Amino acid sequence: MDDIDAGAVDAIVCWHVDRLTRSPRELEDVIDLADKRGIELATVTGEIDLGTPTGRLIARMLGAAARHEAEHKAERQKRQRRQNAEAGKVSGGGLRPYGYADDRITVIEEEAAIIREAARRALAGESLSSICRDFEQRDVRTPADRHWIPTTLRRLLASARISGRREHTPRSTSETTRPLLGEIVAEAVWPAIITAVDSDRLRALLNDPARDYRRQSATGRTYLLSGILRCGRCGHRMNGRPRTGVPRYVCPNVPGSGSCGGIATNTARTDDHVRDMLLTALDSPTLAQRIRSQTGDDHNLAELVRADEEQLEELAEAWATREISRKEWMAARAPIDLRLEKNRAELAGLSRHSPLITFIGTAEQMLNRWKAMNVSQQRAIVAATVRTISVAPANPRKRWDPDRFTFDWIA
Ligand SMILES: [Zn+2]
Known about the structure:
By secondary structure, the chain is mostly helical. It has helices at residues 2-5, 17-20, 24-37, 53-91, 109-123, 128-137, 150-158, 196-206, 267-282, 285-320, 326-351, 363-372, 375-385, and strands spanning 11-14, 40-43, 46-47, 165-168, 183-187, 229-231, 239-243, 246-250, 264-266, 386-391, 405-409. Among the domains are: 2-86, no CATH class; 109-215, Alpha-Beta Complex (Hect, E3 ligase catalytic domain fold), CATH 3.90.1750. The strands form 4 sheets. It has a 3-stranded mixed sheet with strand order 1-2-3. A 3-stranded mixed sheet has the order 6-10-11. A 3-stranded antiparallel sheet has the order 7-8-9. Strand 7 and strand 8 (246-250) form a beta hairpin.
């Protein structure tokens, strides 16, 4: 516009008048300038002479029609989106989603804070049972006015909804339970409570078959090293067990399981020893460096996953508006699906190490952080650092022998 006014431009070529300006008001500016400077306007769809009253009338009519169409389209989309959002209400069993009011759009701040807290703790490796127990003590309740249990919390945290994205879960008659993850199909009309990057990490983490989110001992008490310690004689997992008042880890002697039942170790002393070994191992500059660079990878990977999801979304739109055929759509999405699957799997792998990201520091800092953690949070640190710890048979001449423990460190 400045160039036209300065006389540097003497003709405008555009596709259609409705592509030239975004509003009738802008069109009037063009008409005024055309009057003043006598510019030519050529459109691919036909010549319009802004110098004549008829030409201007046509330009205004076309502009007004385009404007009307745009407004109409926006209104239609808004209504459609709301309808879709409300359709989810029926399939969701009639209850509002946690974090949002009955209109399914307005955020309830108090609940949003709970969602952010749960997401942060789960990403730091705390078990869902541990978070649920804490919520129960604080009397945090679900929209159904019940206490949170790991399965409901898992669904909440894995839902794309809380990151302001809509997902489509195809219905299948053969499956009785809904799959945890659907396909993310669109940005939603409701606001996000957590970021898309955090949501992607949570989805990868909670959908990871390697993670048993239900792990919890029958007594409700969590032992730091249950399932991590391995019997040095038979290789079976050792479990925490109170025996004559003194908690011990034992090889469980379960008939038919191949466990020998021949090895036990004092829980408190073992926990302390493992903690000391862990903090020593983590107190190394090379390890800290590696974890920091991994955080970067984690973030980049999450961005790649986002970009691919966006591309799939664009393709779906292109198909919906008939820019491409169904066949072209399927062909274009195949390589993206493959890459997406690979990156999601890798992201899940990285997320297993994520508890260390906020834990690493000086020896003193780490010890203080460790002391401030509950057993479930500590377990996440252990699981991110060692695969297993093998316990050799006790030396009858020694009361306590740290050499019985062999650590299988994760790289
Ligand atoms: Zn054994």
